[in-house]
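The authors assume throughout that readers already know how a fold can be written as discrete tokens. Each protein is reduced to its one-letter sequence and a matching series of backbone shape codes. I therefore recommend that a typical entry be quoted early in the introduction. For illustration, here is how one protein appears when written out as sequence plus structure tokens:
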Amino acid sequence: MLNRSFSVAPMMACTDRHARFFLRLFSQHTVLYTEMITANALIYGDAGRHLDFDAAEHPLAAQLGGCDPAAMAAAARMVEQWGYDEVNINVGCPSDRVRCGQFGAALMAKPALVADCAKAMRDAVSIPVTVKTRIGIDHQDSYEELTHFIATVAATGVGVFIIHARKAWLHGLSPKQNREIPPLRYDVVHRLKQDFPQLIFIINGGFKTLDECARQLNVLNGVMMGREAYANPYMLAGVDGAIFDTPSIPLSREQAVVAMVPYVAAHVRAGGRVAHAARHMLGLFQGVPGARLWRRMLSAHMYTPGADERVLINALDAVRQFLERHAA
């Protein structure tokens, strides 16, 4: 059974397989998620491009977007066959593309349809089926409407809900604004746990520090961190000790770069580009001396034709020299 005390949120254009491999260097227990993948992209497209992963990425969940129960079930079977530990239904994304496809956050208005998708998926797979949602959409944001949604979906046997503690405005706000403008309502998620004590609730939205996350665990079953974990990935080096109570000696930032060198080299040999992985590493030195130099070195060279793993080596050498000069 997955320990969901701490997880990194599914983020479009962020949590691809290269980012997940990199983040796994810092925490062995954090649950990682794919970007949202539409069910039809798996059924009719290049499934391997979306689902392939390195075994080191476990524990690992795939997030699916869609609203057709049969398609969601077929996609869930593919997720299970690929070896994922969980399949998650996206009922929280407010983007125009997702809204026009009648899935993502728009599905909050159709709890019976979400329940149909969840039941079809649970019937199709043995791995856990979970739901990530908001606390409301537009003017459908009463607590009664939220509890009706939770109860309807939970009746299918779904036992894990990841709640982004903001409502979503499907009209008038961009996805970025929907992550920032609607106020955070942690109290709503806490109330859900009181009213549905048998369910597992994981809270998401606005967390910046591990101390904040740890406090949430006094009430809830888990915390999901998004943009902060991506922008400042070395924060995850403290997760196993602070959240999972399994103290370990984490890799240093330098050791993490060294660990990524053979990974990037293999990716380039297979026809990939340095930037596919290196772009996720820009925040590695966030908040410490050398951060700006590290970002500048990677940004200047990772897109160069013919670039290889030496981009990482050279950037790390530049940071080392910078730190030596300033320590003298």
About this structure: The longest strand covers residues 32-38. The two ends are 51 Å apart (CA to CA). The first helix runs from residue 17 to 24. The mean pLDDT is 95.
